[in-house]
Amino acid sequence: MTFAEIGLHPAILAALTDSGYSEPTPVQRQAIPFAIAGHDLMVSSQTGSGKTAAFMLPALHRFASPERPATARPAERSAARPHGHDRRRFQAAQPKMLVLTPTRELALQVSAATEKYGRRLQVRAVAILGGMPYPKQMELLGRNPEILVATPGRLIDHMSSGKIDFSQLQILVLDEADRMLDMGFIEDIERIVAATPASRQTLLFSATLDGNVGELAQRMTRAALRIQVDACSARHDNIEQRMHFVDDLAHKNRLLDHLLRDATIDQALVFTATKRDADTVSDRLNIAGLNAAALHGDMHQGARNRTLAAMRRGQVRILVATDVAARGIDVPTITHVFNYDLPKFAEDYVHRIGRTGRAGRNGLAISLVHHAEHFNVRKIERFTKQSIPVEIVAGHEPTRRPAPVKPRPVGKSAWKSGDKRSQSQPSGRSDKRFGSPATPRQDGPGRAAYHEAAKGSHGGVASGSRRTYGDR
Ligand code: AMP
């Protein structure tokens, strides 16, 4: 099925051709026709699957076809209007579509995609996010945009001061709903949804529809169609995965420096577990002559935007980021993702590596793994149903073996045993077998501390809130 066969508005088809999209991705093929027909949807799809267009194209199509009647019933409109609202005084914005996202970066990403897909239409889209000056946001809302893309907290501020009236809202999108729940936005979401007309169309996108997010989806949608994107399309088959064992922090830093000097890297994203590490690693790489910048939640939004813009312009080659800050980054020239620290949650691994291999390109994801974290690699492998080959770089061989792991099947392609390492040994790139005694043990002073840190940060099944992790 092509975009034209789906029946999208000609101006949207032209914008898609401009964007170089030749055919819909699986999630787009499955979701767009039903969304155009007005159904509520619960879609489980991974990052990088093309989900933004899956909800934005049907919306733009509807707004570009004014003969379609608005869906809100008059009684519901007045019920949704805030108390004491005086339109003459406040000139509240009356958006027709609201997209809620967990992070500022994702909100900016969605509004940039909206501009791209809607560039031949007269549709105004505005992003409302924390960290942006209020006067600027008031000015944006004053344009009465049809589409509002927002993070929950700042949106509630504007709702409370009567600057937004959802009575005309036709479409509500909850993007990365699982992450919004993980980040503790449930009450904000409930409050926002309660201010919208019951007649709205609701499209919920999430990596998973299990557990709490499944319950949320049931509550927020009406007779929703459930769309599960084929697992194969979420496997990141275009992204090669590797891991290297490291003995200690010094070994890890040396190896990272070495790997980042690979001439095939166009741009790279390096993930750290903490904000402090993002700064430290970025500083260290700059001192080493590598062009790096940090991105994390302690930075002001203006600084985050400037860093991302510099990355997009190619002025920054290496971005060192925490999970939270990196969410939503869509820079097609990112050829490599490095896990300087493993993520705490296996699904975050999928999200991280999906920052490369964007828009149909290939990518390489490399994890630097301490022996004590081997167990976490197994969790990731079980989650992705893919095994991650171990590689060794000549001159940077680890001196220790990881703790032995009982052979256990990994989905269809079973992880056979520790022998997997020798199977994946690339020819030409490495010259030593794992655990070669050729390199002396390095029991440097930082080693014990790192070992403890590895156990403390990553050594078990995660408990507690994800909000605190990945951007601590
Ligand atoms: P998303 O999952 O929405 O973040 O999209 C991931 C990437 O795929 C973005 O860089 C999009 O521009 C790109 N993309 C989305 N749909 C298509 C398509 N039909 N063909 C090619 N690239 C696409």
Quick summary of this structure?
With 472 residues, the protein is an alpha/beta fold.
Describe the structure.
- With 472 residues, the protein is α/β, with parallel strands linked by helices.
- It has helices at residues 3-6, 10-18, 26-36, 51-64, 74-80, 87-90, 104-117, 134-142, 152-160, 177-182, 186-194, 211-220, 249-260, 275-287, 301-312, 323-326, 346-353, 374-384, 420-424, 445-458, and strands at 41-44, 97-100, 125-128, 147-150, 171-174, 201-206, 225-228, 239-246, 267-271, 292-295, 318-321, 334-339, 363-370.
- Helix 9 (152-160) crosses helix 11.
- The strands form 2 sheets. The chain has a 7-stranded parallel β-sheet, with helices on both faces.
- The protein is built from 20 helices and 13 strands.
- It folds into 2 domains: 3-228, Rossmann fold (3-Layer(aba) Sandwich), CATH 3.40.50; 239-465, Rossmann fold (3-Layer(aba) Sandwich), CATH 3.40.50.300.
- It is globular.
Do you know the CATH topology of the largest domain?
Rossmann fold
Query: What is the beta-strand fraction?
Result: 5-15%
Number of helices: 20
Give the second-level CATH assignment, the architecture of the largest domain.
Answer: 3-Layer(aba) Sandwich
The number of domains: 2
Main β-sheet description: 7 strands, parallel
Mean pLDDT: 81
Q: Can you say what the CATH homologous superfamily of the largest domain is?
A: P-loop containing nucleotide triphosphate hydrolases
Tell me, briefly, the overall form. Answer: globular
Low-confidence stretches: 68-88, 407-470
Radius of gyration: 24 Å
> What structural class results from the helix and strand content?
alpha/beta
Name of the level-1 CATH class of the largest domain: Alpha Beta
Bound molecules: adenosine monophosphate
Proportion in helices = 25-40%
Strand order of the largest sheet: 3-4-2-5-6-1-7
What's the end-to-end separation, in Å? 44 Å
The total beta strand count reads 13
